[in-house]
Amino acid sequence: MDKQNYNEVEGNYLTPTELEFLLKCVKQSCDISRYTLIAILAATGMRRGEAKALRWSEVDFGNKLIYINSTRDALGERSAKTLNSIRSIDMTDDLAIQLERYRKWCIEKKLACGMQHKEDDFVFISKTCKPLNQNVARLTLLQMHEIYDVKLISPHGLRHTFASISIASGTPPTTIAKILGMTTATLFKTYAHSFAEKEKQAMQILSNIVNFN
User: Fold this and answer.
1) Which are the contacts of 195, defined by CB distance < 8 A and separation ≥ 6?
2) What b-and-e string marks burial along 10-20, b requiring 16 or more CB atoms within 10 Å of the CB?
3) What is the residue-wise DSSP string for 156-193?
4) Model confidence over 26-58: pLDDT tens digits?
5) Alpha carbons 107 and 129: distance in angstroms, whole number
6) Domain locations in the chain?
7) Considering the domain 14-155 in this protein, what is its CATH number?
8) Is 194 within 8 Å of 168 (Cβ atoms)?
9) How would residue 1 be classed by pLDDT, with cut points 50, 70 and 90?
10) Cβ(33)–Cβ(107) below 8 Å
11) Are 39 and 95 within 8 A, CB to CB?
12) What's the CA gap between 157 and 1, in Å, rounded?
């Protein structure tokens, strides 16, 4: 993949079948921390930096909500990208179960390292109980490409995947924009191609109904 276009939407997303294959490969090849990271990026469309900054205190299992308040990268942790980026995301039952399972793993790992689990701890940690490296998601996707020939995308491509699948499934644009933490105008601009394809599908359905022959 051309490095200059690595983070562009065009080509940098997976189909539902490709996503299912990716998650299957990650689950059988990687530890639960890396699998949960890739899965949550795909299931929520959150940015990689938002996932890296996520703390357990921001995961509300009772109401099945994830609160996004900040982002984290090589320069450290800071407030979320925009006001729209500060948001809550609904957890599906499956995602909540996976996060509960992963939380138990984290608690056990911390105890083995002589540490106590704290609610303000970062969600994603390594086997040595340190916050996951910034490049883990990218390296995981690269490994899956090299080992299983999974289509190579960037971590941001998982966000594009979430958006394109949501648009194709008919989810209202305002809902998708809220989940992604962007304005509806930005959503339409960023994913114009996906919306154009959806319009063609709608017109084809009507064409099949309104037959002029």
Assistant:
1) 167, 173, 188
2) eebbbeeeebe
3) HHHHHHHHHHHHHTT--HHHHHHHHTS-HHHHHHHTHH
4) 999 999 999 999 999 999 999 999 999 999 999
5) 10
6) 14-155
7) 1.10.443.10
8) yes
9) very low
10) no
11) yes
12) 13
Strands (E) located in 38-160:
59-60, 65-68, 70-73, 76-79, 87-90
Please report which helix (H) or strand (E) contains residue 48, including its range.
helix 48-53
Helix, strand, coil fractions of the chain, as percent rounded to 5? 55, 10, 35
Q: Which long-range CB contacts under 8 A does 13-20 form with residues at least 24 apart?
A: 13/153, 13/157, 13/160, 13/161, 13/163, 13/164, 14/151, 14/153, 14/157, 14/158, 14/161, 16/165, 18/150, 18/151, 19/161, 19/165
Q: Any bridge partners for residue 67, and if so which? A: 88
Among candidates 30, 16, 3, which has minimal Cα distance to 163?
A: 16
Global pTM reads 0.89
